[in-house]
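R.M. (postdoc): so does anyone remember the format we settled on? I'll just put the structure tokens first.
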């Protein structure tokens, strides 16, 4: 399983050694357990090679990959870039415009849209649950004209509430945290419940 962590490897390493990271399966603490395979992620400009740490649970003994929140699991593009395309789609752009804006092939962008769109209703409910849990003043979300746009709007509300409650982070980092990296997963993915 993937545990989404902060972007600073030194902080993640220190937290892991101190037992401050909780197992996504059972919430017991994780201990260092080597590294996952080397990943190459495409950024808006250039690529980044990085090797996520792994942790092993002291309770259930399962291992988890500690993936930085600027990424999604199983995606070769950084979260912010994918998010830019999803946001463009939610505000009316087509594949061609989103592909031009992000510098990615139309086929790639079509795949992102399809994955997100396929889960849009589930994601809407999930992000809304987070938003409602974190923002007591929020009662409803105004319809945005499509299920896709509703899900992006629910994410924006949840991310804003989480940035106020916890610490300021970009929307797509919250998207990664709130979905355990599985925003665009094509398999069943365990989304973490709101706190
Ligand atoms: Zn565990």
């Amino acid at each position: 399983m993937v545990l989404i962590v902060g972007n600073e490897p030194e902080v993640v390493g220190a937290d892991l050694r101190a037992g401050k990271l909780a197992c996504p399966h059972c919430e017991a603490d994780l201990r260092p357990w080597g590294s996952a395979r080397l990943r190459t992620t495409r950024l808006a400009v250039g690529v980044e090679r990085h090797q996520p740490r792994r942790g092993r649970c002291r309770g259930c003994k399962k291992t988890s990959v500690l993936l930085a929140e600027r990424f999604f699991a199983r995606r070769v593009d950084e979260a912010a870039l994918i998010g830019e395309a999803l946001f463009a789609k939610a505000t009316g752009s087509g594949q061609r415009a989103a592909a031009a804006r992000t510098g990615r092939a139309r086929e790639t962008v079509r795949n992102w849209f399809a994955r997100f769109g396929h889960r849009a209703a589930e994601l809407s409910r999930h992000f809304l649950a987070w938003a409602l849990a974190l923002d007591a003043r929020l009662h409803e979300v105004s319809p945005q004209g499509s299920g896709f746009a509703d899900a992006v709007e629910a994410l924006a509300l949840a991310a804003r509430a989480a940035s106020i409650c916890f610490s300021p982070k970009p929307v797509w980092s919250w998207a990664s945290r709130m979905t355990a990296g599985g925003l665009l997963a094509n398999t069943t993915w365990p989304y973490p419940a709101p706190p």
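R.M.: ...and that's the designed sequence above, right after the tokens. Also worth knowing: Residues 23, 25-26, 28, 57, 59-60, 62 surround zinc ion (CB under 6 Å). DSSP finds seven helices and six strands in the chain.
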